[in-house]
TrEMBL record, chain A:
One of its GO terms (cellular component) is plasma membrane. It comes from the Bacteria. The keyword RNA-binding does not apply. One of its GO terms (biological process) is transmembrane transport. This is ABC transporter permease subunit. Keywords: Cell membrane, Membrane, Transmembrane, Transmembrane helix, Transport.
UniProtKB/TrEMBL annotation, chain B:
The lineage of its organism: Bacteria, Pseudomonadati, Pseudomonadota, Alphaproteobacteria, Rhodobacterales. Residues 90-305 form the ABC transmembrane type-1 domain. SUPFAM superfamilies: MalF N-terminal region-like (SSF160964), MetI-like (SSF161098). It is found in: Cell membrane. One of its GO terms (cellular component) is plasma membrane. Coiled coil: none annotated. One of its GO terms (biological process) is transmembrane transport. This is ABC transporter permease subunit. It is a multi-pass membrane protein.
Amino acid sequence: MSAHSITAATSRAKWVAGTLVILYAVITMIPLAWILMTGFKSPSDAISYPPKVVFEPTLEGYVNLFTTRTRQTEEFLAANPPENWADEIVRQYDMVIVGPSKFGERFLNSVIIGFGSTFLSIFLGTLAAYAFSRFRIPLADDLLFFILSTRMMPPIAVAIPIFLMYRELGLSDTHLGMILLYTAVNISLAVWLLKGFIDEIPREYEEAALIDGYTRFQAFYKVVLPQAATGIASTAIFCLIFAWNEYAFAVLLTSATAQTAPPFIPTIIGIGGLDWPAVAAGATIFLLPVMIFTILLRKHLLRGITFGAVRK
Amino acid sequence: MSSTPIDRVAQATPKKVARRIKGLSDRAIAWIFVAPTIFLLLAINIFPLIWTIQLSFTNYRANRLNREVENIGLRNYERILTDSDIWLNMQATAHFLFWTITLQVLIGFTLAWLIHRNFKGNAFWTTVIVLPMMLSPAVVGNFWKFLYQPQIGLFNYIVSFFTGRDPSSFQMLGDVDLAPWSIVIVDTWMWTPFVMLICLAGLRSIPDYIYEAAEIDRASKFRQFWTITVPMVLPFLMLAVLFRGIENFKMFDLVVQLTGGGPGSTTELTSINLKREAFEKWRTGYASAYAIILFVTVFGLASIYVKALNKVKER
């Protein structure tokens, strides 16, 4: 676009547009900023009226998130001085830290299931996408549509038979069960996105490699994979985000051992109801990695959320 | 087939040698590569779907293992389709779908239209706006419950700041009239950026020369908007609506955390109702029939819609 283009916006139009967009962005950020702030509030500041924007920051929420505490008698508290700064924080409520909370475990489950299912979806998805992209597969379009249509089922509808099946197979509340399930859900996204990325790699590269004496598999491994690395990485992040955020299957199919963070965070109870600073602290820790990934992904975002239908 | 150089080389090479050079045949590789995916989907999607269909004709209850399972034919389907409560859930879902999509299309398109002015720093602000959409709906929904609290909640406080109403005089989540809107607001907050991104791609796909030609023909800006911009963005917009429609028809996590379907059943969307039937009342057979009805509905509506979308694209 040249500087004198008749289609370019005037500087005043740009200024108005910019102001409105920034206004929207600021409004949209308020809830997220509030989560971040609440995590550093004391329980009484968190529920004060009017809501406090300026407050004295404390790590209470984070301490409550990671620990379990019990109330103790004054004699006990006097006899055992606080061991560290975290202990000191809970002492103001006549409590002592007795051990870690379940949050660490739940978070770790999210990591294991998220990365496990992402690895598996990418592994299977890359192979399938390569085959769909390069070979003539009978009924390829129907198969691809079938793969996509598995996403249209409401998760609860899928969960009914999965629940029964996992109960028979002993996969209920196991990491393996959740990894397989999330892989099955993510694979449609992986195949569709990766096929798009591989379609963009010129066939000539592989053909040259094949003529040089590579086998088809070597050509795939040594020529196509490195070329598709960016596409594979961004697809992997999308799969990871989905598995990370998933709630419906997690709440229905996991409880004690394999429960992930999303069903756990809303259940953090403090004195007299939900412990909002601890909930906010958990949410902050849980949401932050996704925000960072989103920023890294911004160039491929559109492609990811539309299953490759819009490529920009 | 034989147009690629490698096929020509392959044809010119004796069979045995060709096999050694190429390793497995392409066909074998194709199947080895595709089979695991198809197998996984058959095991975790199709087999369960068939099982659901089979269960939907029975009175099976997953919490009573010793009870005899009877085949009751189409009774489950009959009961669901004549149940007035389920029509209320459908209405709640329709209200949610209609308003979320309308608001997201209006706000999303406007934002995209503004960002397309290419003001300074638009890329940065676009990334900021997009953030909510990638977050966990359950965790975010749970936190919005806090924002919606009367008295202490930030949402009520902001509303009262601008309208002067007492912040404890209304309950977004507890009021029968307001609760359906509370879920529309959060979903719109979360997913407007999705529509915006797709519209932006649509706007950017319109070549400048079309506007230049219109300018030379002295078409007004208003006319350019309705005869160039809107028709050319429409296929993109329709795609966005398709995605949002399917996703919101399945909506569960966000709303369950916000309202749990209440008060009463005013925000009990079909997925939440289905969960109650299947995992709280344990009417597995009945819930299976319900699931099949929902699936057929989404699938049917989506197919009709895709046909319409393709027609628009062809134009």
